[in-house]
Amino acid sequence: MTTNILHIPCNTIDGREIRLADLEGKAFLIVNTASKCGFTPQYKGLEQLWKTYGERGLRVVGFPCNQFGGQEPGNAEEISEFCELNFGVSFPLFSKVDVNGDDAHPLFVELKQQAPGVLGSKKIKWNFTKFLVDASGEKVTRYAPTTSPDDLTADIEKLLS
């Protein structure tokens, strides 16, 4: 039996426990992020999606992760400040998490179960892996780190219509 992704407890970057369902979205774009990654400029595209579709119900949420090349070494305050100053990030950021291994956050355990990677892999291979989830928390689509946020607009539009 699968767990509804939207009801898994998560800690915001300032330490408050919430569930994604509390954000009352029509679609959720969940991304494992990092500040010192070759894909870090995708923050700009993610912020643009948030600004473009937020009022229509898209919730973009970032989960910093330091599991790939130590590319997110900062603490919560440093991560938040970096994202805001360098990319104008205003979408919700969450506490740093592991996405693989024994200490993987339950949200990412469930995301990987519902939307495995290439050849059925249950691992996340790098930062900026993206998961688009519908309002029910049931339908999950996975996108590679190399997929630009701009390339998600057609799928986002479908979920918001």
TrEMBL record:
One of its GO terms (molecular function) is peroxidase activity. GO terms for biological process: cellular response to oxidative stress. Gene3D superfamilies: Glutaredoxin (3.40.30.10). Pfam families: GSHPx. It comes from the Bacteria. Keywords: Oxidoreductase, Peroxidase. Belongs to the glutathione peroxidase family. This is Glutathione peroxidase.
